[in-house]
Design goal:
The structure is a homodimer. By secondary structure, chain A is an alpha/beta fold. Chain A has 12 helices and 11 strands. The first copy, chain A, has one domain: TIM Barrel, CATH 3.20.20.70. In chain A, the strands form 3 sheets. A 6-stranded parallel beta sheet of chain A has the order 3-4-5-6-9-10. At the A-B interface, strand 8, helix 8, helix 9, helix 10 and helix 12 of A face strand 8, helix 8, helix 9, helix 10 and helix 12 of B. Chains A, B: One of its GO terms (biological process) is L-leucine catabolic process.
Chain lengths: 312, 312
């Protein structure tokens, strides 16, 4: 039987190659209730890199009491030596940046919100105050020649505020770009976006001077929309897509079992479209199946489910 | 909080309205192992119509020993009197057509295969032989002024033959159109298609003289691709989309828990794109939640999961 998916490039032009920003070890595992041993996390990241992922967000240097699931960042990071992939880490403030730098991190990310309510709930300050907190972090990181990603959450809908106006997202995005972020990841944190909304936001950002190559998209599959929204972003020219191996991670604010776009479902579509990712899908599925066994529950990824059943 | 999804029409033009061909009662329930009482099926169809669905495939007039789940077609159909929706029924042959006509059905569907192996396994004859079986059925149905849909399964991949050549699908599609089918539903029975493949097939069909208004798409979510493939079809101009309430139904050949595109996930995207469907999403979710309770397991639809958790 022929290897699937079959390659059928889409008419009209899509990026020839997409960089997948794998968020499973950080965004996925930080939402796990159970404690994952540090050596399991390290093996997970090693296996993801061996499967061909070139950007793997490894952990977060936040205060351990805020995110106890990632409190082992200092123990984990040295175990990643020798991995042939970029390993960005999340830092919330200057103290986090210092910890990351001390371990030799070359890529960091800050996590901003497009809405006031989520900024208050997640960062305990207003959007403006959070930007003031990030500015010296980004400035110092750029001086140290680190690559800086700015996450922008709640870009489409907010569980408390409802629809998020496009111009409000653009304003915060411009502020993050203006302080020196190399890349912005637009998050649909509660998974409510649809393709026209995605393209409207991307166009508005372009018009405001934020070019498409500086943009990544980060979709959640709460309403099953993540992959069609990704297709819409690809059609706009976006070539960096966030995803989580096996669909690890949920959004605690959306009250749903489903979370991040599964990397495997994304890879299936990209490879079918003839878009290169460098990922070995079988090896990735094996990794997610292995991780699911550690977590004691099946992966929500459709592709993992289909391909792991096929093997058995 | 604002009602979600928010409406953001896509740039470039999509159909203003999409007709959803609801297949849950037939394609969904025929794959259920347990027997569903006839009055539950009837209530299901009444509730789907009350939720605004205008085309609901009700049952199948096959030999009861082939599909015991739908052996109650003669009991069920009269219970659907007064429903304000089209209620097509599947018929495999002239005998099935006679049974459907006797009950007053005005829309029928035949079920063909694009591949030899599936034709042999599902219909116990070659593709050519199956077309010869359908020809008199379609001819007689057209004489009786019935609307005829031709299903074409395995249009993208086949579990035994692998990738299915586009020209092979076009050949069978032309034969079905030539014998008088009003509409063709292109099935990705094992869920392997990706958006470029969808558009390649649609273009090839147009070039062969089958116009887009005569085409419907029928995607399975085995690899999570159903909704992005639907978006690609909409971008090509397709305005009839098959879906199954709550994602009911699986493909027994794909060894996966997931089956048809869930109507709710589809409606979320369409309404977000500003495309009219006439469907009341909350009422539809309530119907699928009610049906899931009858079946004793949760719906695989992401939207049903998210919205039913929200209520509780």
């Amino acid at each position: 039987m022929t290897d699937l998916p079959m390659r059928f490039p889409a008419p009209g032009g899509l990026p020839a190659r997409v960089r997948i920003h794998e968020v499973g070890p950080r965004d996925g595992l930080q939402n796990e209730k159970q404690a994952i041993p540090t050596d399991v996390k390290a093996e997970f990241i090693h296996r993801l890199a061996a499967a061909g992922l070139t950007t793997i967000e490894a952990t977060s240097f936040v205060r351990p009491e805020w995110v106890p699931q990632l409190a082992d960042a200092e123990e984990l990071y040295p175990q990643l030596t020798g991995i042939d992939a970029d390993l960005p880490v999340l830092v919330p403030n200057t103290r986090g940046l210092e910890r990351a730098e001390a371990l030799g991190a070359t890529r960091i990310a800050v996590f901003a919100s497009a809405t006031e309510t989520f900024a208050q709930r997640n960062l305990n300050r207003s959007v403006d105050e959070s930007l003031k907190m990030f500015a010296p972090v980004v400035e110092r990181a750029k001086q140290a020649r680190l690559h800086v990603r700015g996450y922008l959450s709640m870009c489409f809908g907010d569980p408390w505020e409802g629809a998020v106006p496009v111009h409000q997202v653009v304003q915060v995005a411009k502020a993050l770009a203006g302080m020196g972020c190399d890349e912005l990841s637009l998050g649909d944190t509660i998974g409510v976006a649809t393709p026209g909304h995605v393209q409207a936001l991307l166009s508005a950002l372009n018009e405001a001077g934020v070019p498409t190559p500086a943009l990544a998209v980060h979709f959640h599959d709460t309403y099953g929309q993540a992959l069609s929204n990704t297709l819409a972003a690809l059609q706009h020219g976006v070539a960096t897509v966030d995803a989580s191996a096996g669909g690890l991670g949920g959004c605690p604010y959306a009250k749903s079992a489903t979370g991040n776009l599964a990397t495997e479902d994304l890879v299936w579509m990209l490879h079918g479209l003839g878009i290169e990712t460098g990922v070995d899908l079988d090896q990735l599925v094996a990794t997610s199946t292995w991780m699911a066994a550690h977590l004691g529950r099946p992966s929500p990824s459709r592709t993992v489910t289909a391909l792991s059943h096929k093997e058995s």
